[in-house]
Amino acid sequence: MTHPIGLITGASRGLGRNMALHLAKRGVHIIGTYRSGASEAETLRQEIEAVGGKAAMLALDVTDTTSFPAFAATVSETLKTEFGRDRFDYLVNNAGNGLFSNFIDATEEQFASLVATHLQGPVFLTQKLLPLIADGGRVLNVSSSFVRFTLPGYSLYAAMKAAVEVLSRYLAVELGERQIRVNAISPGAIETDFGGGAVRDDEGVNAFVAKGIALGRVGLPDDIGCAVAAILSDDMAWANGTTFDISGGQLL
Ligand code: NDP
Q: Which residues contact 147 (CB under 8 A, 6 or more apart)?
């Protein structure tokens, strides 16, 4: 059996980690990246291999575009030595952090950091990795429900994610020739370390957010990880150039 290979940025924690586990359960081999969480990434690698999967973990800071050519070379080498392949099949641009500020107080440094992490990183990482993505593969970008609804403090973050959704549609057209599907997911509030972990750790915030979700609770990493595994599967191969809202019906 040929196993597809998925490369997930920011796989050391949170949603990326969970996506890796759900994809591995479906037989997808994983190349995960970490920035500071080398030991967390190694734990994930062991967990995947313990259940019969295969994984390699590579260091990557998505804000450091100068490192991308060397990263692509490492991916190419890893594909050959660890997986016996020249190409991988799924790229998930997931890595990111929350950086929130009321518009009136936002600084140019915050803006530059958001651009670097959430837009410039995914743009040029995808560009550098495209020769390593197999024809018929997938690119999945991680957006946010903040694009669809508004909350004070999230304007610049949401603007980055909106750009990523538009980029996904345009890339779907440019990569159609190679049968590469490009989509985005737009998760609602999920219990991770994101934003200091407030949705997960602060009961008041958790209850407030849950009230705005049709299904009456905030999301868990599993809600996103299994959706991503489904979206990347062949069952969803006709979905292209679209954004999937995965929020339990948040602020409808
Ligand atoms: P977490 O804070 O739990 O995890 C963030 C992950 O991204 C970690 O693996 C971290 O690596 C990695 N990371 C952060 N900055 C960089 C960087 N500059 N370069 C490389 N890797 C980096 O966040 P989530 O898992 O919740 O978020 C994942 C994605 O989902 C983000 O794009 C976020 O915007 C989006 N999102 C999250 C929602 C939520 O409610 N949780 C809702 C909607 C969207 P390390 O720890 O190794 O440094």
A: 158, 161, 162, 165, 186, 243
Sign of torsion, CA 157 163 165 171? negative
In the chain, % of residues over pLDDT 90: 99
Does the Cβ of 20 fall within 6 Å of ligand 1?
Answer: no
Measured CA to CA, the distance from residue 34 to residue 13 in angstroms comes to: 8
pLDDT tens-digit readout, 21-35: 999 999 999 999 999
List the catalytic residues: 157
Which residue has a Cα nearest atom 12 of ligand 1? 10
39 vs 155, 169, 224, CA distance in Å? 34, 36, 23
- Span 93-105, pLDDT tens digits: 999 999 899 999 9
- Chain centroid to CA 33: how far? 11
Which residue owns the Cα nearest ligand 1 atom 39?
A: 190
* Gap from CA of 93 to ligand 1 centroid (Å): 10
Domain ranges of the chain: 5-196+222-245
Query: Is 36 a pocket residue for ligand 1 (Cβ < 6 Å)?
Result: yes
132 CB less than 6 Å from ligand 1? no
* pTM for the predicted model, two decimal places: 0.99
Q: How confident is the model at residue 246 (pLDDT cuts 50, 70, 90)?
A: very high
Residue 43 CB less than 6 A away from ligand 1: no
- For residue range 173-197, list pLDDT tens digits in order: 999 999 999 999 999 999 999 999 9
Q: What CATH code would you report for 5-196+222-245? A: 3.40.50.720
